[in-house]
Amino acid sequence: MKMCMPPIGTMESLTGFVLAGIQHSSGGPIGRFPGVEDAPHSDGVVVASHGGTSRFRPQRHSPTVGANCRCLFDDTVLECLRSSLATTLSSFAPLAGKLVHLKDTGDVGSSCSATDGVRFVVAESDADIRRLSGDEEYDISVLRLLVPEVDMSELPVRVLAVQVTRLDGGMGMALGVTVHHAVADGRSLWAFVEAWATACRGDTPAAATPTFDRSLVKLPRGDELAREVLRKFAPNLPLATLPMPTTGETIRPFTRVRAFTLEKQDIELLKKRIIHLSESNGVYLLSHPLSTFAAIAGLAWTCFVRCKQFSGDDDVLFFFFADARRRLDPPVDEAYTGSCLTGCLARLPARELQADHALVAAASAVQDEVCKMAKDPVAGLDFVTPLLTIDMDRLMHVSGSPGFKAYEVADFGWGRPRWTENARMNDDGHVVLMRAN
């Protein structure tokens, strides 16, 4: 199957998520962080199964406390993960394929056949799970080793890869998933994870059948617009690298990562705080009811500015993706499982983000961009061009969504994951949002 790739999605966008099911020993020292090693004979390819059912019905594992627990990571669990993955791929066939360059037209297509499959890696590490799963700074270099590497610099390139890592002598397991965003955005990724987890548990799958039919995404000027934006994303195909910023600034590598959890009551207090600041300062910037996303984004944006040394006249930018499915005319069918994103870019002078009403200004600017996107979702498709002309040090980028129920959908039969992280955050100033456990 081959199809023209529309621009809603990126050519150099790879996401790696780590899902971990945990068993703890009772005490003991905090371990060190060595590299992850592939177990002997651990690398294989899972081919889509069209038989309809998994050969193994797993036993549901409950998290256990004890010094000698090893049941979470054994051959039965591995085989169940493999076989249920094969079953799931029969409904998510493009994820088992490759992105290819179609020389005749210059397009990029998704190519999948009965012989295609997903790389499935089994690895081991004695990294201590407690040092990776808390709301504290953790070793990002080790976290990255828990997701499979996929070279996406030149087409053809695999769309999906999976890695299962035994942690801390079997006291925990990490399931790493790497997916290319040109084929699946965040919503589609979690739909796939949910379907895989359902198959692994042996439960009845959802009635809705996913479809990757991109003809469901109706764009003005159709393929012409797709090709136009594709040339800006990847002007040197089959090389799939993005063009460099004209400012000479490169993407800044980050050095530290930390997770922060906002409980429901924290979010409600944050919203009330923003509304109170608006009223008490006489700054009525909120033209719409305050959304959870705008409130959290506003908080993150103002924190970003506090960490930097900007002059008051410096423009500080806030970029985020938005799901365009319901915003397009006509709306995209709910069964569509692919990539359907558009870009939003808010901009404020630093003085506004440093003032007493900074939270109000930030949340309002974000919410205004969401409203603009709702009115004209196509306007943000070419988000690459404006990003190439700005100082990267003044850019903050948010991905993910509070609507992604990662902990709820990723129960593979031994309970919800203890933690879920994006292991491939792109640069300094990048924040990932996800619904907490």
UniProtKB/TrEMBL annotation:
Single GO MF descriptor: acyltransferase activity, transferring groups other than amino-acyl groups
Keywords associated with the record: Acyltransferase, Transferase
Origin: domain of life: Eukaryota
Upper taxonomic lineage: Eukaryota, Viridiplantae, Streptophyta, Embryophyta, Tracheophyta
Protein name: Uncharacterized protein
Species assigned in the record: Lolium multiflorum
A Pfam family recorded for this sequence: Transferase
